[in-house]
Structure formats: structure tokens, C-alpha cells
Amino acid sequence: MQAFATHYGYEPVGVWSAPGRVNLIGEHTDYNGGLVLPFAIDRRTWCAVGDRDDRVVRVSSTLTHETVQVSLDGLDPDQLSGWSAYVLGVIWALTAEGIDLTSRSGLDILLTSDVPLGAGLSSSAAIECATAIAINDLWHLDLPLQDLARICQRAENRAVGAPTGIMDQTASLLGKADHGVLLDCESFATELVPLRFADEGITVMVIDTHVSHAHATGGYADRRASCEKAAAALGVTSLRALTRADLERAEQALDDETFRRVRHIVTENDRVAHTAAALLDSGPRSIGALLVASHVSMRDDFEISVPELDLAVDTAIAGGAIGARMTGGGFGGAAIALVPAGHYDIIERAVLAAFAATGSTTPTIFSVTPSPGARRERALTVPSMTEH
Ligand code: GLA
């Protein structure tokens, strides 16, 4: 990474990278012990690392030009803030998981990324996972990827302060080209599911609405609290324990709003299972109705969509998309659409026109492909990036 030498004055020992993710289906189910089916995307964060001979860690990014310096002896999650908390939080989380770092020497870290920020494509997990995989290699920790996912989630929960589940980090670490990662957030079992989008002439369109979402302060934590309250009221440890057969009892026991939160989780778990089965049996052209039903459930029952996301989904479907839904935590961010070859330009134009007609901010529209998860890069250089 040329930028590393320019910044720190010497060559890095290695460059590692981790991708953002799109969640194909299974929203807000992860922290309820449920099922998710995300895939890693061809937008990544690169992390170049150099060795030091003291206990200092310096973190810098080509996107901010700010350098944050801490000592390995004084890592305190309450003192971490801003973007560097995603990096330093991972190092702190390693110690919180009982990894002894007292004999380790410090590091210089430089990050660069082309994962769009705030679009619901897990730019934060990409930073955490690039850091985690780099340190795991460099310090020969040999931690399995699923342990690294938990460590990254811990960093996000405690050092960043966002009460998120484990989906994003799992997708970023375990993703594989052309595959989705089916994760059971109760047993933590994973299965790679072939997506076959390219074989079937399907492009995944991302429509970033630029409506901002803030997990730490927004409705995400409220939704999580509602789910936990509902589980307690229904006498189960997590909503994963419920099936559609329990919904009648839930409706009687809960107020209308809490019931609808529960109904989303229960039906969404079902939809993830059906989507994985349909992908295996019949391929990606068969999952459109499941994606749309997921969006409707998030819009009406979980209430995490916004008008711009609904407009993106409705316009994409009207333009010939196989399926579409908002993706990620909600309250803004991006929608995805599975677009058959030949429809991409038509749908793109239709979405732009619909947003213009309603006076909404112009969305950014681009395609993504299911891509490999976190890895060490062979080269010591990456495309230089100052913005995206
Ligand atoms: C965010 C969180 C994930 C998950 C999704 C919603 O992306 O980081 O853990 O809860 O929202 O499905």
C-alpha cells in the first residue's frame, strides 16, 4: 500500500481485506437467535499493517487523514470513539476474550475502503473484520473465523456502543464468491448456499437512498428491546423458540405493536429457511416473492422502512425486478433488487425518475456481486482511495 509508506515512512508487513455485505434476507433475526442469509460483496476495506518495537498502536485512514495513537497497555472501551473505535475496539475485544497481549509489540495500521458509509452495507463490520483477520495472522492467534466474528461483534457492541447482532461480521469473514452464508444465530451453524445470480443472468442492484440511519441512537435499540420484552412476556429465552403456531397465543398476550414485532421475527425466520431451500431447489428466480414479503413485513410489522426505501422497492418491482427489499438495520440505508439481464437500465432510470418526482434526494445506484470474505492480500498495494 503506497499510502502506508507515505504515511508511516516504511513498508507494511502485509495487507488484509474484508468485505461489506448485503443481507439477502433475514432482518433483525440475528439478535433473536434466528436465521439470516447475507452475502459478502465486492466492496472492501483494506488494512495495511506495520510492526513496531514498542507498545504503541497508531491507526490512520486514507479517508480521514487523522491518526489516533494509543498504548496496548491502556485500551479502555470507554475511551474509544469515532471510526478508530472499530479498529481499536477489536484489539480491546481480544483481551476481553482472554487473549493475552502483554508480550505483543505495537502496530501501525492504515485503512482504506470502498464500502459506502451509512448505506446499511456494513462498512463498520468490514473495518472490524479486516483488523481482526490481520491481527489473527500477524500475531499467529489461529482463532477460527467464527470466534473472530464474535470478537468483532463484541467490539461493535461495547467499544462502538451499537447493540447489533453477529450477522454482518459473519458474512464479512465467511463469505464466498457466488454464495450466501446461511447462519443460524442460535447454534451458530453456517452453510454456504449457492446463489447462482450470474448463471441465471441476474444482477443485484443496490439503491442507496442516502437517508441516514444511526443504529446506536435510532430505532434499532428500541426494536431489540421490544423483542426481548416480548420473549420474556411469552416465557421463552429468545423469539427463535416461536413458530407460526405460537402467533395466536402471542397476539392474545401482547399489545398490538409488540405482537407485530414478534410476527415479523417469526415469519422472517420462516422466509429465510424457505429462501435457502428455494435457492438450492430452483435457483434465484424462485425467491422474488419471499424478498417482497420480507420487505412488506419490515414495512408494516417491524416498521423499520422509510418512504424512500418503499419507493425504491415498489419501483424496482414495477420495472421488472424479480424481487426487492430493504437490506440491513433499516430507518434508511439501501434497498436491493434482483434484476434480470436487460432490465438494469430501465429499472435504474425508473427509480431515478420516481425519486425526482417525489422530490427525494437522488439515490446512488450500483450493482454488487457475491464475493470472497476476509483474506490476506498477496500484494502490498491496493487501489488508492480518498473518497467513494
Ligand atoms: C444491522 C446489524 C445486524 C442486524 C441487521 C438487521 O446490520 O449490525 O446485526 O441486526 O442490522 O438485520
Provide tags for this entry:
alpha+beta, 12 strands, binds alpha-D-galactopyranose, single chain
Please tell me about this protein's structure.
The strands form 2 sheets. Strands 1, 2, 3, 4, 5, 6, 7 and 12 form an 8-stranded mixed β-sheet that branches. A 4-stranded antiparallel β-sheet has the order 9-10-8-11. α2 crosses α4 and α3 crosses α4. By secondary structure, it is an alpha+beta fold. A hairpin with a 6-residue loop joins β9 and β10. The structure holds alpha-D-galactopyranose (GLA). The site of alpha-D-galactopyranose has 11 residues, from α5.
Low-confidence stretches are none
Strand content: 15-25%
The pLDDT mean sits at 94
- Helix percentage range: 25-40%
Structural class comes to alpha+beta
- Distance between the first and last residues' Cα: 18 Å
β-strand number: 12
Shape: globular
Q: How many helical elements? A: 11
Largest sheet: 8 strands, mixed
Bound molecules: alpha-D-galactopyranose
Q: Please provide the ordered H/E string of secondary-structure elements.
A: HEEEEHEHHHEEEHHHHHEEHEE
Rg measurement, Å: 21 Å
